[in-house]
Amino acid sequence: MEAKIGSIFESLGNFFTGGDQIPWCDRDVISGCEREVGEASNGDSDERKNESIMRLSWALVHSRQQEDIHRGIAMLETSLGNDRSPLHQREKLYLLAVGYYRATDYPRSRQLLEQCLEVCLSHL
Predict the structure, then answer these.
(1) Threshold 0.85, pTM exceeds
(2) Among 61, 60, 39, which Cα is nearest to 48's?
(3) The domain containing residue 36 runs over which residues?
(4) What is residue 95's predicted lDDT score, i.e. its pLDDT?
């Protein structure tokens, strides 16, 4: 348990000290995720649709294109209130923090990471 918490704090430290180890995503991956969301919208289960949307959101906030990043942020903010699962909330908060970090809104990114940690620590 302590190792897990230590790993989280180490990642956060790297995040704010310029040790950006966050992966980038290219347009081919985003296009594939967009196709997957379109296919999932044609009669698939809600779970599959939500998973597809989360993959697309991940790809968008990890893009090098600012318009993709802002689109990912908008998608995540819209879906954040719809989920009661602490795990899903934590994932969305983290992805939002990545998006705001890549959009150079560092104070908002930090605030979201703190919320993410609160969710993590409240469910240990």
Answers:
(1) no
(2) 39
(3) 2-122
(4) 96
